[in-house]
Design goal:
Fungal-type protein kinase domain-containing protein, 4 helices, 31% strand, 11 strands, three-stranded antiparallel beta sheet, 195 residues
């Protein structure tokens, strides 16, 4: 396949190998904070960033969220050279497992619709319900902003978040609160009685 002006090339080093990967515009999912998201080799999600400006903040957010027990894939951050639209920059790719299930984005109504679509049991003793509740409480504890994820019943984690941004305050070394994460907790806590 020929390379188009709008396609993205990512050149990086893995061990002693120099690798260049072409990511085609036709396969791109849009992203507000990055050049785009691509599904790579069936299993992987590659979110490509044109510069390294956000690298340390994102890395820190993912590390702190993981420590707090937020259900998510543990990503790799790979630094390299990004070529897009005739420009070459030093950027990075956030690589995580491709997620399946019903996606929810930013709003309690979207989360509730995902729970409905996946037929989340209305029984507080159900393991999916318990794991989903724990995930919502973890999101609340880290002040998760821009709450996005997938719900899929029967998985080890019935709720998984992606695109992690926390309300971490580096001056006081604490997490701030998040109205969005609070709303997720309200949805799951009222789920049992919402039949």
């Amino acid at each position: 396949m020929s390379i188009d002006y709008n396609d993205v090339e990512f050149a990086y080093t893995q061990g002693d190998q120099h690798i260049t990967r072409t990511l085609y515009l036709k396969d791109r999912k849009t992203s507000r904070g990055a050049l785009g998201i691509w599904r790579v080799d069936v299993l992987w999600s590659w979110k490509v960033y044109r510069s390294r400006r956000q690298l340390q903040r994102l890395y820190g957010d993912y590390q702190r969220a993981d420590t707090a027990g937020l259900p998510m894939d543990k990503p790799r951050f790979v630094v390299g050279r990004i070529r897009s639209r005739g420009r070459t920059t030093s950027g990075f790719v956030l690589i995580a497992r491709w997620m399946e299930g019903t996606q929810f984005l930013n709003k309690a109504t979207s989360f509730r619709a995902a729970l409905d679509a996946q037929m989340m049991p209305h029984d507080r003793t159900d393991q999916n319900y318990i794991r989903t509740t724990a995930g919502c409480l973890a999101a609340q504890s880290v002040g998760l902003r821009d709450c996005q994820g997938f719900v899929k019943m029967g998985e080890r984690e019935s709720l998984q978040f992606f695109d992690i941004h926390t309300r971490w305050n580096p001056i006081y070394n604490i997490f701030g609160s998040s109205i969005q994460a609070d709303a997720l907790v309200q949805v799951i806590e009222s789920w049992e009685s919402s039949i």
